[in-house]
């Protein structure tokens, strides 16, 4: 085994690193500003810093794990690449028409996401497959390729999305057209909907394929530059990227399916939160960590996931680029396996403004890394959450220098004064407190709504914070939600990078196949699972080794339009139809409060997860490089604006000088290189054996 393994998480504002030195049994962390124009530049900068500080040698590193927001940002900001859409004749506007669903019936000016497709780059193909999978009409090679050549000659675009009706039942027509294109244009990028999302419902399948095509050339270029730079530094190990389902996949595989990287970083953050809860369970009476709310907030967005009994819920679809806050149906639907997350436009770089009601609104727009918050002095003039926390005294100028950033409280005050305080006729301090509290309420509201959708009583959950910005807001959000315990992990600012090590290499496979449960057999269900695995080369290779296989079924009563997920897990004894019926009825009753015993049940959607039975790299038994062996834990005090409007003198602790068993009563600030923790009055935190801080919340003072 090589001495080093490294993980890198690229966020909208910062790029985070965790280096595992296996010889010294030590963990090193680093954080640098993201370089949006060329994300690999931030990676190479961080690697150079770790080479100087920790002795990292790329030629002695066997594992490079990566999470990135590059795909999500490309879709939201519409910075992908043009593509030719080849579609079944007569279905030219499927992606624009969608479901004809109004997500807000009272809004007369309803908006929807801007389309990814261009009318001038659509090509109708005379072909047809029936709903049963019968080929009613095969495409004509001459006609198709004449249209393709004309578009390529006119536009130079050699990026294609092939989306035909009912291709999930029979993909022969899509595969034929793909082969013709690749034969003529060997370097072309081609996505076919039957491979990207082999599921029923044309709109959702086609949209998934369109997003894949829109982002594939960009990801291929980025991965090519990254691999070249790593190779030049001597790296010869394996490179994997985190997918939305929480399973790392090879660079090569991810380039073919970039749509699966939509929630790459947040997925790693959820895995980190689960690992944090597990390592603290014994120290906090076990049951207290059975259920957790994973709360991740960085520079651009905040994410939340509810883990019940430690189970990470992977859903078969998700929606991105919503134009309506918390409004289902206002975004782009994608049929990909993804960890169930709620995402809010709230982070350190979130821009504060005065909305049409004349009150403070924060987010979803973000200053990002360029120009960044006003306090960075890089040209930003709009007030952000980071500016507000700096003015409030929750953040300090010296602590930013640990990330190589010089900030100015004066610039932060000027931005808040100009954009918020003066227009509202209030003090800068009151405006800053309003920005801070608005974020708390927005995040808590989002978590509350998502919990209601899931039928969860979040008051019995433990809040686990990850991300550089979450630790300043976690206790306030927990109090709003009546959550009684908060965990602040060591290295919270780079937790998603830690989570990359906790992932298990694997792949999630999806397929639509209708099967009445009263006609199913356990052997038949097992055969369907085996055939899905055999059809995917990587899954087949995993299954031949020590891999775990888990099955989740999308089920419904016959005649219903949508399904509920029924997780059967890895035990094939659960494939018995009677056991499946019992599991379906239990899940249906939990969601709807009743069942229909006389109705026929059918299986619609199959999700098979194949993964290795071990984490990418174990972190147990490793120490943290930045722990101090001597020195006082309390390093001073500073004024923090209190809730009533007066200043509080708050003690400031050095996180790296705290030892297991040390208590930190609130109010207090705990500083580490990549984040600052705020323990308000009425709370008390204790350092666990894991070096994580666990705060118990008393009644709000």
From TrEMBL:
Q: Give the GO molecular function terms.
A: 5-oxoprolinase (ATP-hydrolyzing) activity
Matching entries from Pfam families are given as: Hydant_A_C (PF19278), Hydant_A_N (PF05378), Hydantoinase_A (PF01968)
Which InterPro entries is this protein grouped with?
ACX-like_C, Hydant_A_N, Hydantoinase_A, Oxoprolinase-like
Where the record annotates domain Hydantoinase A/oxoprolinase, the positions are 205-501
* Gene Ontology CC annotation, any one: cytosol
Taking every annotated instance into account, which residue ranges of this chain make up the domain Hydantoinase/oxoprolinase N-terminal? Answer: 6-182
Q: What is this protein called?
A: N-methylhydantoinase A
* Record organism: Enterovirga rhinocerotis
Native organism taxonomy: Bacteria, Pseudomonadati, Pseudomonadota, Alphaproteobacteria, Hyphomicrobiales
């Amino acid at each position: 085994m090589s001495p080093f393994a490294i993980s890198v998480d690229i966020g909208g504002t910062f790029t985070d690193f965790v280096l595992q030195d296996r010889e010294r049994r030590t963990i090193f962390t680093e954080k640098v500003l993201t370089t949006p124009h060329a994300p690999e530049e931030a990676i190479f900068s961080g690697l150079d810093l770790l080479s100087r500080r920790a002795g990292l040698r790329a030629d002695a590193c066997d594992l490079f794990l990566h999470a990135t927001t590059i795909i999500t940002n490309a879709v939201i900001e519409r910075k992908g690449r043009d593509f030719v859409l080849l579609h079944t004749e007569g279905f030219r506007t499927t992606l624009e028409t969608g479901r004809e669903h109004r997500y807000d019936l009272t809004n007369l000016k309803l908006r929807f996401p801007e389309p990814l497709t261009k009318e001038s780059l659509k090509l109708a193909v005379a072909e047809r497959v029936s709903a049963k999978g019968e080929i009613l009409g095969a495409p004509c090679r001459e006609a198709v390729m004449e249209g393709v050549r004309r578009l390529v000659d006119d536009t130079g675009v050699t990026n294609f999305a092939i989306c035909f009706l009912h291709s999930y039942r029979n993909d022969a027509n899509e595969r034929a057209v793909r082969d013709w294109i690749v034969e003529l244009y060997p370097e072309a990028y081609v996505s076919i909907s039957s491979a990207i999302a082999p599921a029923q419902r044309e709109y959702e399948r086609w949209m998934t394929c369109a997003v894949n095509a829109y982002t594939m050339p960009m990801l291929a270029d980025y991965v090519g530059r990254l691999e070249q730079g790593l190779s030049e530094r001597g790296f010869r190990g394996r490179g994997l990227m985190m997918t939305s389902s929480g399973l790392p996949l090879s660079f090569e595989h991810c380039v073919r399916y970039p749509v699966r990287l939509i929630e790459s970083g947040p997925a790693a953050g959820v895995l980190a939160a689960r690992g944090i809860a597990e390592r603290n369970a014994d120290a906090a009476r076990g049951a207290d960590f059975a259920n957790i709310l994973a709360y991740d907030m960085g520079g651009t967005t905040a994410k939340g996931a509810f883990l019940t009994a430690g189970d990470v819920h992977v859903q078969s679809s998700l929606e991105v680029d919503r134009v309506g806050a918390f409004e289902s149906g206002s975004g782009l639907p994608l049929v990909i396996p993804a960890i169930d997350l709620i995402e809010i436009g709230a982070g350190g770089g979130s821009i504060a403004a005065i909305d049409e009601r004349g009150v403070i609104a924060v987010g979803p727009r973000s200053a990002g890394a360029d120009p960044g918050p006003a306090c960075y002095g890089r040209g930003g003039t709009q007030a952000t959450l980071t500016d507000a926390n700096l003015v409030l005294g929750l953040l300090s100028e010296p602590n930013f220098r640990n990330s190589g950033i010089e900030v100015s409280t004066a610039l932060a005050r000027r931005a808040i004064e100009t954009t918020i305080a003066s227009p509202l006729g209030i003090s800068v301090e009151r405006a800053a407190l309003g920005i801070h509290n608005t974020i708390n309420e927005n995040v808590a509201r989002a978590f509350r709504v998502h919990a209601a959708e899931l039928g969860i009583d979040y008051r019995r959950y433990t809040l686990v914070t990850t991300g550089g910005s979450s630790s300043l807001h976690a206790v306030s959000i927990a109090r709003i939600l009546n959550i009684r315990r908060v965990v602040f992990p060591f290295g919270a600012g780079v937790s998603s990078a830690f989570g990359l090590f906790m992932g298990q290499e694997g792949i999630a496979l999806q397929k639509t196949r209708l099967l009445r449960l009263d006609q199913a057999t356990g052997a038949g269900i097992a055969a369907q699972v085996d055939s899905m695995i055999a059809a995917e080369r990587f899954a087949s290779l995993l299954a031949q080794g020590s891999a775990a296989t888990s099955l989740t079924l999308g089920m419904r009563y016959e005649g219903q339009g949508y399904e509920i997920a029924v997780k059967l897990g890895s035990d094939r004894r659960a494939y018995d139809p009677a056991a499946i019926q019992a599991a379906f009825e239990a899940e249906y009753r939990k969601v709807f409060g009743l069942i229909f015993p006389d109705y026929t049940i059918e299986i619609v959607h199959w999700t098979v997860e194949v993964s290795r039975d071990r984490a990418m790299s174990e972190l147990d038994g490793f120490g943290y490089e930045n722990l101090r062996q001597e020195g006082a834990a309390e390093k001073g005090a500073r004024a923090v604006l209190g809730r009533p409007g007066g200043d509080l003198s708050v003690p400031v602790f050095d996180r790296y000088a705290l030892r297991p068993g040390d208590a930190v009563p609130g109010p207090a600030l705990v500083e580490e290189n990549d984040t600052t923790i705020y323990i308000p009055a009425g709370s008390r935190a204790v350092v666990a054996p894991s070096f994580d801080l666990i705060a118990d919340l008393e009644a709000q003072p």
